[in-house]
Amino acid sequence: MTEIRVAALVGSLRDGSYTRPACRHALDEAATYEAVETDLVDLRDVSLPVYDAADDEAGDAAELRARLRDADSIILGSPVYHGSYASALKNALDYCGFDEFEDTTVGLLCVAGGSFPTTTLDHLRAVSRALDAWVVPHQVAIPRAHRCFENGEIVDEDVRDRVEVLGRRMVEYASIEPDPRTIESTQNVGANDR
Known about the structure:
Shape: globular
Oligomer: single chain
Number of strands: 8
Strand content: 15-25%
CATH superfamily: Flavodoxin domain
Largest sheet: 6 strands, mixed
Order of helices and strands: EHEHEEHHEHEEEHH
Mean pLDDT: 92
């Protein structure tokens, strides 16, 4: 088996984040496979000013893009903010594009303080499709996250199982044969010169 690289992009900046340990747990599960390397891309450790298309090399943008480009599959993890995903994750994704995501397997994970966090996953799926990524059908929504974690560990068995399945899917589908480009990606301004 050739080496597979699985990354998780953590879209939470909060110290007590539940997104971070959930992404870490998914990566730990992915690492149980032979020849798998993982990379937790924690946006707390990446310097990215608010995206300005006139300066897309600002801060650690080049390093962020390189780490994601090297991944065969990427988990996008975010807390739920106002029914969507975190601005830190949006900003990071704005620094990226087709070079990082086209034909890349993507998994989605979101964490909410309340219930019904699925619109966040819908929004992340739409962004991923616009970048011509291949989004796995299995996704993880963790409602009422404060009940599911203790000391940075997942204590809810159902949540743990879903997160572990996501980690496995990132390996199993890391090299899936890509489909023809989506209509969303062909209409994306970034795709016009391709």
